[in-house]
Task: structure prediction
Amino acid sequence: MIANYVTEAQVKTPQSSPKSVLTQVVGLTDVEINYSRPSARGRAIMGDLVPFGKLWRTGANENTTISFSDDVVIDGKTLKKGKYSLYTIPKAGSWEIIFYTTTDNWGNPEKWDEIM
Result:
């Protein structure tokens, strides 16, 4: 008697740009950051794939977002509680961070409502 068996196996591989969520209480304020980390895959990311001195929709896949449960003060300016997209301008020695109120944007915004 000959028996024929067919099997299938699916290997779950990691995403090329893994998503992460960081939740932290800072003082009395809940802060949550949702982001996907760009996978290098042998490439130089900062200064190459993401050029220095140019606006970057921070992260991979979709907008990186940050939310605050209370108003916060950043660099001496008040940022109202809520959820924001993070855009950055990376430089070799420092980064400029831009908080943006539209959180479902894809790519860089055509019209800015920069609040900080």
Remarks:
- The CA atoms of residues 1 and 7 lie 19 Å apart.
- DSSP finds no helices and eight strands in the chain.
- The mean pLDDT is 84.
